[in-house]
Amino acid sequence: MAAVVLGTAMTALATGNVEASVVSPRAVNDISRYCQACWRNARLPADRWGDCTQQVFTRLLERVEPTKWENVLALEGEERKEFLRAIDTVKKRTQRTRKYHELTHDFADTHTDVANDLRERRDEVALAAQTVLSPRHQRILELTVGGWAVPEIAAELGTTVERVSDEKYKAIRKLRAHFGVV
Predict the structure, then answer these.
(1) pLDDT of residue 16
(2) What's the predicted TM-score (pTM) here?
Protein backbone atom coordinates (compact mmCIF):
# COMPACT_ATOMS: atom_id res chain seq x y z
CA MET A 1 0.00 0.00 0.00
CA ALA A 2 2.85 2.33 0.79
CA ALA A 3 4.12 1.81 -2.76
CA VAL A 4 0.83 3.01 -4.23
CA VAL A 5 0.84 6.15 -2.11
CA LEU A 6 4.52 6.75 -2.79
CA GLY A 7 3.93 6.35 -6.52
CA THR A 8 1.09 8.83 -6.43
CA ALA A 9 3.20 11.26 -4.44
CA MET A 10 6.02 10.95 -6.99
CA THR A 11 3.54 11.64 -9.78
CA ALA A 12 2.46 14.76 -7.93
CA LEU A 13 6.11 15.78 -7.65
CA ALA A 14 6.62 15.23 -11.38
CA THR A 15 3.62 17.43 -12.21
CA GLY A 16 4.94 20.24 -10.05
CA ASN A 17 2.75 19.73 -7.02
CA VAL A 18 5.60 19.54 -4.50
CA GLU A 19 3.37 19.92 -1.46
CA ALA A 20 1.45 16.72 -2.28
CA SER A 21 4.66 14.69 -2.32
CA VAL A 22 5.22 14.94 1.45
CA VAL A 23 3.55 11.82 2.83
CA SER A 24 4.52 10.42 6.19
CA PRO A 25 5.21 6.67 5.95
CA ARG A 26 3.94 6.31 9.52
CA ALA A 27 0.62 7.96 8.57
CA VAL A 28 0.26 5.60 5.60
CA ASN A 29 0.94 2.58 7.81
CA ASP A 30 -1.47 3.78 10.53
CA ILE A 31 -4.21 4.47 7.99
CA SER A 32 -3.69 1.04 6.40
CA ARG A 33 -3.99 -0.73 9.75
CA TYR A 34 -7.09 1.27 10.67
CA CYS A 35 -8.68 0.36 7.33
CA GLN A 36 -7.92 -3.34 7.83
CA ALA A 37 -9.64 -3.25 11.21
CA CYS A 38 -12.66 -1.59 9.59
CA TRP A 39 -12.85 -4.20 6.81
CA ARG A 40 -12.57 -7.02 9.37
CA ASN A 41 -15.33 -5.49 11.54
CA ALA A 42 -17.54 -5.00 8.47
CA ARG A 43 -16.95 -8.68 7.57
CA LEU A 44 -15.72 -7.86 4.09
CA PRO A 45 -13.94 -10.71 2.26
CA ALA A 46 -10.24 -10.66 3.19
CA ASP A 47 -9.22 -10.81 -0.47
CA ARG A 48 -10.89 -7.40 -1.01
CA TRP A 49 -9.15 -5.56 1.86
CA GLY A 50 -6.21 -4.36 -0.23
CA ASP A 51 -8.46 -2.97 -2.96
CA CYS A 52 -10.69 -1.28 -0.40
CA THR A 53 -7.74 0.31 1.36
CA GLN A 54 -6.40 1.52 -1.98
CA GLN A 55 -9.77 3.13 -2.75
CA VAL A 56 -9.65 4.95 0.60
CA PHE A 57 -6.16 6.25 -0.19
CA THR A 58 -7.31 7.36 -3.62
CA ARG A 59 -10.18 9.30 -2.10
CA LEU A 60 -7.87 10.81 0.51
CA LEU A 61 -5.44 11.90 -2.20
CA GLU A 62 -8.31 13.64 -3.98
CA ARG A 63 -9.75 15.39 -0.92
CA VAL A 64 -7.14 15.76 1.83
CA GLU A 65 -3.67 17.22 1.47
CA PRO A 66 -1.11 14.47 2.17
CA THR A 67 0.66 16.79 4.60
CA LYS A 68 -2.46 16.61 6.78
CA TRP A 69 -2.79 12.81 6.77
CA GLU A 70 -1.33 12.74 10.27
CA ASN A 71 -4.63 14.32 11.39
CA VAL A 72 -7.01 11.69 10.01
CA LEU A 73 -6.65 9.56 13.12
CA ALA A 74 -7.10 12.51 15.49
CA LEU A 75 -10.24 12.65 17.62
CA GLU A 76 -11.74 15.59 15.73
CA GLY A 77 -11.17 17.57 12.58
CA GLU A 78 -12.23 17.90 8.98
CA GLU A 79 -9.54 15.44 7.85
CA ARG A 80 -10.95 12.76 10.18
CA LYS A 81 -14.49 13.35 8.89
CA GLU A 82 -13.32 12.95 5.31
CA PHE A 83 -11.38 9.80 6.22
CA LEU A 84 -14.42 8.24 7.89
CA ARG A 85 -16.60 9.20 4.90
CA ALA A 86 -14.11 7.49 2.59
CA ILE A 87 -14.11 4.31 4.68
CA ASP A 88 -17.91 4.25 4.88
CA THR A 89 -18.31 4.84 1.15
CA VAL A 90 -15.87 2.09 0.20
CA LYS A 91 -17.36 -0.34 2.74
CA LYS A 92 -20.92 0.18 1.53
CA ARG A 93 -19.93 -0.05 -2.13
CA THR A 94 -18.12 -3.33 -1.47
CA GLN A 95 -21.04 -4.75 0.51
CA ARG A 96 -23.51 -3.83 -2.24
CA THR A 97 -21.26 -5.37 -4.90
CA ARG A 98 -20.99 -8.57 -2.89
CA LYS A 99 -24.77 -8.82 -2.47
CA TYR A 100 -25.31 -8.19 -6.17
CA HIS A 101 -22.91 -10.96 -7.15
CA GLU A 102 -24.55 -13.39 -4.74
CA LEU A 103 -27.92 -12.81 -6.41
CA THR A 104 -26.76 -13.17 -10.00
CA HIS A 105 -26.13 -16.91 -9.67
CA ASP A 106 -29.79 -17.55 -8.78
CA PHE A 107 -31.13 -15.58 -11.74
CA ALA A 108 -28.61 -16.45 -14.42
CA ASP A 109 -30.44 -19.29 -16.22
CA THR A 110 -34.22 -19.08 -16.61
CA HIS A 111 -34.59 -22.13 -18.86
CA THR A 112 -33.63 -24.87 -16.43
CA ASP A 113 -34.83 -26.50 -13.24
CA VAL A 114 -32.97 -23.82 -11.31
CA ALA A 115 -35.61 -21.28 -12.36
CA ASN A 116 -38.42 -23.59 -11.22
CA ASP A 117 -36.67 -24.23 -7.91
CA LEU A 118 -36.20 -20.51 -7.43
CA ARG A 119 -39.86 -19.85 -8.21
CA GLU A 120 -40.88 -22.46 -5.63
CA ARG A 121 -38.60 -20.89 -3.03
CA ARG A 122 -40.11 -17.47 -3.67
CA ASP A 123 -43.58 -18.93 -3.24
CA GLU A 124 -42.49 -20.53 0.05
CA VAL A 125 -41.12 -17.22 1.29
CA ALA A 126 -44.27 -15.37 0.23
CA LEU A 127 -46.46 -17.89 2.05
CA ALA A 128 -44.25 -17.73 5.15
CA ALA A 129 -44.37 -13.93 5.04
CA GLN A 130 -48.18 -14.03 5.07
CA THR A 131 -48.11 -16.41 8.00
CA VAL A 132 -45.29 -14.95 10.12
CA LEU A 133 -45.19 -11.23 9.33
CA SER A 134 -47.51 -8.34 10.00
CA PRO A 135 -48.99 -6.54 6.98
CA ARG A 136 -46.60 -3.62 7.61
CA HIS A 137 -43.54 -5.91 7.61
CA GLN A 138 -44.84 -7.61 4.46
CA ARG A 139 -45.20 -4.23 2.76
CA ILE A 140 -41.68 -3.16 3.76
CA LEU A 141 -40.18 -6.37 2.37
CA GLU A 142 -42.32 -6.14 -0.76
CA LEU A 143 -41.02 -2.63 -1.45
CA THR A 144 -37.45 -3.69 -0.67
CA VAL A 145 -37.65 -6.58 -3.13
CA GLY A 146 -39.16 -4.15 -5.62
CA GLY A 147 -35.94 -2.14 -5.50
CA TRP A 148 -37.06 0.69 -3.25
CA ALA A 149 -34.42 2.33 -1.05
CA VAL A 150 -35.06 2.68 2.68
CA PRO A 151 -35.61 6.48 2.47
CA GLU A 152 -38.19 5.95 -0.29
CA ILE A 153 -39.99 3.31 1.79
CA ALA A 154 -39.99 5.66 4.79
CA ALA A 155 -41.57 8.41 2.69
CA GLU A 156 -44.15 5.97 1.30
CA LEU A 157 -45.12 4.72 4.76
CA GLY A 158 -44.87 8.13 6.42
CA THR A 159 -42.26 7.14 8.99
CA THR A 160 -38.55 7.58 9.67
CA VAL A 161 -35.68 5.89 7.89
CA GLU A 162 -34.49 4.41 11.18
CA ARG A 163 -37.90 2.86 11.85
CA VAL A 164 -38.09 1.29 8.38
CA SER A 165 -34.56 -0.07 8.70
CA ASP A 166 -35.36 -1.54 12.12
CA GLU A 167 -38.63 -3.12 10.96
CA LYS A 168 -37.00 -4.53 7.84
CA TYR A 169 -34.28 -6.12 9.99
CA LYS A 170 -36.89 -7.62 12.32
CA ALA A 171 -38.96 -8.96 9.43
CA ILE A 172 -35.95 -10.67 7.87
CA ARG A 173 -34.99 -12.17 11.24
CA LYS A 174 -38.54 -13.54 11.67
CA LEU A 175 -38.41 -15.17 8.24
CA ARG A 176 -34.96 -16.62 8.91
CA ALA A 177 -36.16 -18.02 12.24
CA HIS A 178 -39.20 -19.50 10.50
CA PHE A 179 -36.95 -21.32 8.02
CA GLY A 180 -34.39 -22.25 10.68
CA VAL A 181 -31.66 -20.09 9.14
CA VAL A 182 -30.28 -18.10 12.06
Answers:
(1) 52
(2) 0.46
Q: Is the per-residue pLDDT at 162 higher than 90?
A: yes
- Structural contact between residues 94 and 44, judged by C-beta atoms closer than 8 angstroms: yes
Assigned architecture for domain 110-179: Orthogonal Bundle (1.10)
Please give the residue that has the higher pLDDT: either 98 or 71. 71
* Helices 49-63 and 25-41, axial angle in degrees (round to 10): 130
Could you tell me which of 137, 138, 161 has the C-alpha nearest to residue 149? 161
Helix extents (H) in the chain? 2-14, 25-41, 49-63, 78-107, 113-132, 135-145, 150-157, 161-179
Report how far residue 119's alpha carbon sits from residue 63's, in angstroms, rounded to the nearest whole number: 47
Asked whether residue 10 carries a pLDDT value surpassing 60, the answer given is no
